[in-house]
């Protein structure tokens, strides 16, 4: 555009253009002039941004630690992946203290939880803006619970389940506890508890939220546990082909709970494959919706070599990461395409753990959280 025309555009029109920029372009634009640099401090601009900025179905990844599958280290850096343009971005996150790990993400915020056994400290972090909010610590002592998070513009729900410490040396999957706050003035600060189904085994550490329910994998044998937030109760859903599944993962894609797993059994009268099933509206039955092409599955199985894999989804995109490796396959529901994706240039040899992430300059619910929670320096102390 001719600079003479650009310089004469009214500020309100320029602001609308800037508010619609993707995050990397927005932060580059801030270096143009003092006014653009200061836009993120303008209440009027933030309101415009929240109204105009399109949803971006990105992912955020952290390097694995060796502590446990459910833990992903902060390590002072995070990696954003734009699946539409197949681009990686590195973010320095020096604000994250030692001793906490990323466990979930929603609505532009990443949840970090203390690694030590006991009552869990909880931080909500906006990686794009570098802002931290500390929530009140959980009430029950736990080791490495499964954690679910969902954030909207007017509410937040956070749930910790399982790995209850019944002694300094033993854990058992007994209970869940939840945190809720909303714009209507309703608060439940870890006061809502529920008993888990008997003999459940929660090992993945990951939950997904779909239409008022949290879902997580149950192991030995495979099944899916569902927590109804409104009813405050747990139920068990049988997994498809549960005797033949390997490395199952639950993801949320386009408003559905989707199970991603390999199907492998020597005597099974079908070829080995990687499949996706969607939970049906009845909440009890699954339907196969996709299958990795056999040639690609051969390449994937050779690269994976029995180590297992994790899956994460956002919008139309499902990313399947091989454990202990930098390699990953992506499926695009919109284009019905399977493809290898370029590895993160800074990825670790132990692999990475990913979460669905929408980069946002502002998250409206944080205003309520800031009124409720303690200042961050109390955690650092």
UniProtKB/TrEMBL annotation:
SMART domains: FBOX
InterPro entries: F-box-like_dom_sf (IPR036047), F-box_dom (IPR001810), Gal_Oxase/kelch_b-propeller (IPR011043), Kelch-typ_b-propeller (IPR015915), KIB1-4_b-propeller (IPR005174), SCF_F-box_component (IPR050796)
Annotated ranges, domain F-box: 3-52
Protein name: F-box domain-containing protein
Organism: Salvia divinorum (Maria pastora)
């Amino acid at each position: 555009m001719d600079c003479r025309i650009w310089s004469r555009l009214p500020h309100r029109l320029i602001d609308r253009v800037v508010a619609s920029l993707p995050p990397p372009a927005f932060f580059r634009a801030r270096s143009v002039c003092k006014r653009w640099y200061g836009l993120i401090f303008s209440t009027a601009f933030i309101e415009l941004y929240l109204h105009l900025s399109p949803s971006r179905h990105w992912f955020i990844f952290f390097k694995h630690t060796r502590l446990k599958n459910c833990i992903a280290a902060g390590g002072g850096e995070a990696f954003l992946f734009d699946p539409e343009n197949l681009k990686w971005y590195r973010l320095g996150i020096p604000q994250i203290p030692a001793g906490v790990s990323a466990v979930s993400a929603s609505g532009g915020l990443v949840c970090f939880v203390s690694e030590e056994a006991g009552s869990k400290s909880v931080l909500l972090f906006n990686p794009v803006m570098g802002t931290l909010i500390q929530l009140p610590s959980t009430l029950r002592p736990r080791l490495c619970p499964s954690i679910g998070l969902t954030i909207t513009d007017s509410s937040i729900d956070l749930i910790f389940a399982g790995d209850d410490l019944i002694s300094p040396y033993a854990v058992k999957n007994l209970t869940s506890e939840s945190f809720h706050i909303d714009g209507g003035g309703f608060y439940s600060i870890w006061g809502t508890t529920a008993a888990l189904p008997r003999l459940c085994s929660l090992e993945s550490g990951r939950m997904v939220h779909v239409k008022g329910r949290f879902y997580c994998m149950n192991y030995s044998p495979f099944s899916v546990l569902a927590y109804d937030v409104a009813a405050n109760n747990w139920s068990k859903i049988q997994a498809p082909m549960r005797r033949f599944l390997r490395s199952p993962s639950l993801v949320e894609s386009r408003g559905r709970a989707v199970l991603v797993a390999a199907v492998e059994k020597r005597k099974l009268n079908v070829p080995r494959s990687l499949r996706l099933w969607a939970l049906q509206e009845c909440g009890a039955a699954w339907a196969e919706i996709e299958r990795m092409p056999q040639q690609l599955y051969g390449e994937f199985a050779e690269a994976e070599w029995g180590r297992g894999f994790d899956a994460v989804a956002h919008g139309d995109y499902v990313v399947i990461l091989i454990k202990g490796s930098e390699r990953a396959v992506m499926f695009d529901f919109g284009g019905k395409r399977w493809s290898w994706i370029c590895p993160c240039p800074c990825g670790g040899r132990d692999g990475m753990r990913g979460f669905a992430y929408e980069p946002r300059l502002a998250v409206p619910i944080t205003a309520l959280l800031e009124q409720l929670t303690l200042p961050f320096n109390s955690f650092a102390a």
